[in-house]
Design goal:
Chain A has 12 helices and no strands. Chain A is mainly α. The longest helix of chain A is centred in the C-terminal third of the chain and has 39 residues, at 224-262. The chains are: A mainly alpha (316), B alpha+beta (535).
């Protein structure tokens, strides 16, 4: 088992390296110039040139990459080109907001999608099943920013039930206040996730119910409910773990958009600003962090797989 | 059957939702009579103290230090945090930290006296030492200040010395009429805080800024907000509000909803949203000139644009008033611009060739130039609504005189890059906009032959000479005359086609007074938030 983990991590290193080269190249190929995002016409051309040199942007691309790589390997993600604060510090201060939002929506998504889609799968083509399918199609189809706007419009502006933006009331610092601010963005993310998970879990439930072991349980006189809870659930959870691992990138991407709409102060907001300003140290920092997260997430999913289903060997 | 019904009812719910959300987008023509600068005058004339205001900004501030600020958000926050030496509005100077200033007879020495008893937010006295330290930091190449070149003349930096605690002397290497204008954006930073910092820009001390303005720093939560609180020792009288919060609102639509919801009390809004917000009756809609020129520029790198008659023909073929109505929905938000200098700039004149709409003249000029079947490319930023409308209008209007226009919408950064490329021949026409301030010399960087922002690539030694003479001409009459010649040259040569002096719209919640005294100002919304009070 330990060997397996070590080997997986060793495999991940070249992958991360490739990701870093590709991302760096893409950022550098993107049209635009980070310096131009803070140039005013009152600045002379020599000022612009000085700033460019100071940021090392006058160097060839590969030199910039190796400088960046060298610093990263020594544990230094560099400074933001725009804010001039350490990248690591800027990302770390945004993590709680993003993880809080993502974690809450992930938990809710599972709590909602597993029971609902198992019921739907066990009553194929019933009104309930079709209704859920429709809702999940809507969830997959509508753009999340639009859905977010709708929620703001109804629940914040029309009904005045909830705040529309930010993570806190200015100057307040209570858990309840943060939760209140989180409800709408969390709803958006949860709705999007549930729509995706439900389709997987439903089809999985259907195929499990056709398995022999289920028929045997019925023959023993077990009720549908018992079968679902005692036997099918376990086998349905297995693919869920994979889906979770696979949907991490979507979760992160969804967080970007949703955080922007709700001005939620997480990594997504930071990333969007960095992209606008072509602030490559920040973009690279977020990209590498997300990549590490993905690699670790998939590794954990594989290990859990082995825990849930001993037939799958994670040795050797 | 059942499922069909459900589909239908769901679709209905969606449609209703969409309609209710989008139905109020104010895109119609504006006919509101209560625009312009009228404030609610329901207060009894006695400003109350206390309360707070939340102002929306679209992003986090960068380094909260005035020797680096170049972006709108940071400048807006610095406006309350750091006091300048003086302000200039419509050519009139009002002293802030400074008590007086004067030039020597030969105009090479500028003496500045500070007010007595000035204090930093931490209680330390603000003296001549701070002014000298700030100027030296700006001039120190190792500190990468973005405004260094404004204080370097002909390659030589200005020299600053302390005369006594309240007096500073600036020695100029050559006569410069523009020097004083540069000082408008000069706000001192505290020497006792930053002395000895190797790299001020990366200093942790910027995270807890010590300024000299009406509000002092209280708290910054990245991605959320910056809160400032009243500075009780402010020399020009305490502010009325207890605190000011600048809240990051990334999404403009969501920010407008938060404004209507009362979570935000002030925001700069797009002119398209004017009616929607004005109709709620909840806001004081400040509409004021933002000192900005929006223009179209001819790219003389392309041979077809090098004939003056062709450029003039294009100017005659366009109806400026129609062009503005087509793009800004109403002349309330943009006035037709005759000159390349904005009305708030010294020596701006409307006494230039205006090219009133005249199709016959346009055709005649094209014929004289021997040009037919002209095909042009017009580049603009694809996210900019007014530019998009203008591009379509110009395409249609130029067709009337036999010129075919291909539209090239681009993303902002790509567009910025292309226009800055000195040898760019990718398009003949493009749009742009600038806010340069009251000092006409600042415009040089857009018009000199070898200037980085000379988007028209028009090169003319005589024209350069006018700019350079005007920069050092101290006699106001003569200087005004030079700038008049400059404006007329651009109009006659038609290298830049000025379209509009645009206005900014700031929505302020009706429950606040003192907005007029706070003085609406380009870029930063309000000049002096200490005048704002809660009714």
């Amino acid at each position: 088992m330990n060997n397996y983990i070590v080997r997986r991590i060793a495999q991940a290193i070249p992958l991360l390296f490739v990701i870093s080269i590709v991302s760096f190249t893409l950022i550098k190929l993107a049209p635009g110039d980070p310096v131009l995002s803070f140039v005013t016409p009152n600045m002379g051309a020599e000022d612009v040139e000085r700033i460019r040199q100071n940021l090392g942007l006058d160097q060839p691309m590969y030199v910039q990459y190796f400088v960046w790589l060298k610093n990263v390997l020594s544990g230094d993600l560099g400074y933001s080109l725009v804010n001039h604060r350490p990248v690591a510090e800027m990302i770390i201060e945004r993590l709680p907001a993003t993880f809080g939002l993502m974690g809450a929506s992930l938990l809710l998504s599972l709590l909602i999608s597993i029971p609902l889609s198992m019921i739907a799968g066990s009553r194929q083509n019933s009104l309930f099943d079709r209704g859920l399918s429709l809702i999940s199609y809507i969830g997959i189809s509508i753009p999340s920013f639009w859905f977010g706007m709708m929620l703001i419009y109804f629940f914040a502006v029309e009904l005045h039930w909830l705040p529309s933006m930010g993570m806190r009331t200015v100057g307040m610092d209570s858990a309840w206040d943060i939760i209140k601010h989180g409800i709408l963005p969390c709803t958006v993310l949860t709705f999007m996730n549930v729509s995706v998970y439900m389709r997987y879990i439903r089809s999985n439930t259907i195929s499990q119910l056709e398995e022999d072991y289920v028929q045997i349980q019925y023959a023993y006189g077990a009720t549908k409910g018992t079968v679902l809870l005692r036997h099918v659930l376990k086998n349905v959870l297995l693919p869920v773990i994979t889906i979770l691992g696979m949907s991490l990138p979507e979760l992160i991407a969804g967080a970007f958009i949703t955080e922007s709409v709700f001005s939620w102060p997480g990594m997504g907001s930071l990333g969007i600003s960095a992209v606008h300003g072509l602030d490559y140290p920040i973009i690279m920092g977020i990209t590498m962090m997300s990549s590490v997260l993905l690699v670790v997430g998939n590794l954990v999913a594989d290990i859990l797989y082995g825990v849930v289903d001993p037939r799958i060997k994670t040795t050797g | 059957m059942k499922s069909k019904k459900m589909w239908l009812s769901l679709m209905l719910v969606l449609v209703v939702a969409i309609m209710s959300a989008c139905g109020s987008s104010g895109d119609g023509t504006s006919s509101s009579s209560n625009n312009a600068e009228n404030t609610a005058t329901t207060d009894d004339g006695q400003p109350k103290d206390g309360g707070s205001i939340i102002i929306a900004v679209q992003d986090d501030p960068k380094v909260m230090n005035p020797i680096y600020a170049g972006d709108r958000v940071t400048l807006t926050i610095d406006q309350s945090l750091y006091a300048p030496l003086f302000n200039v509005n419509d050519g009139k100077k009002t002293y802030v930290l400074a008590e007086s200033d004067s030039f020597s007879d030969d105009h090479l020495t500028y003496t500045l006296k500070l007010k007595d008893g000035l204090k930093w937010h931490d209680g330390q006295p603000l003296t001549a030492d701070d002014i000298v330290f700030t100027m030296d930091s700006i001039l120190d190449e190792k500190q990468h200040s973005s405004s260094r070149s404004q204080y370097v003349f002909d390659g030589k930096p200005v020299k600053v010395t302390k005369v006594d605690d309240l007096t500073v002397e600036f020695k100029l290497p050559e006569v410069s009429a523009a020097f004083e204008g540069a000082l408008v954006s000069f706000s001192p930073i505290p020497k006792h805080i930053f002395e000895g910092e190797a790299d001020i820009e990366k200093s942790d001390k910027n995270n807890n800024p010590i300024g000299s303005g009406p509000f002092k720093f209280k708290e910054y939560r990245p991605g959320e907000y910056v809160t400032l609180e009243r500075f009780d020792d402010y020399f020009a009288g305490k502010a009325h509000l207890d605190s000011v919060t600048y809240r990051v609102a990334k999404d403009p639509n969501a920010a407008n909803l938060a404004l209507q919801n009362g979570e935000i009390q002030m925001r700069m809004v797009d002119t398209q949203d004017y009616n929607k917000l004005n109709d709620t009756g909840k806001f004081n809609m400040l509409t004021y000139p933002e000192g900005r020129l929006q223009y179209m520029v001819f790219n003389l790198n392309v041979p077809s644009m090098q004939k003056k008659e062709v450029r003039q023909a294009i100017a005659y073929a366009l109806d400026k008033n129609e062009l503005i109505t087509a793009s800004y929905s109403s002349a309330d938000f943009a006035e037709p611009a005759p000159s390349i200098l904005t009305p708030d700039t010294l020596y701006q004149t409307n006494d230039v060739e205006k090219y009133d709409y005249n199709v016959e003249k346009a055709k005649q000029l094209l014929a004289d130039a021997g040009v037919s079947n002209l095909k042009l490319r017009l580049a603009y930023t694809n996210t900019n609504k007014p530019q998009t409308s203008q591009a379509l209008y110009i395409q249609q209007k130029l067709k009337d005189v036999g010129i075919e226009v291909e539209l090239l919408p681009m993303d902002g950064t790509a567009y910025g890059n292309r226009t800055l490329d000195m040898n760019n021949t990718d398009f003949e026409l493009s749009f742009g906009g600038y806010i340069m301030g009251y000092e006409p010399d600042a415009y040089k960087s857009l018009f000199l032959s070898d200037a980085a922002y000379n988007y028209s690539h028009y090169k003319n030694a005589d024209f350069d000479k006018l700019w350079n003479e005007a920069a050092v001409q101290i006699d106001e009459t003569k200087r005004g005359d030079l700038y008049k010649q400059i404006q007329q040259t651009v109009a006659n040569e038609m290298t830049v086609y000025p379209i509009a002096y645009t206005k900014a719209v700031v929505a302020v919640d009706n429950t606040y007074g003192g907005v007029e005294d706070a003085n609406p100002k380009p870029v930063v919304m309000l000049e002096d938030l200490s005048k704002i009070y809660k009714k």
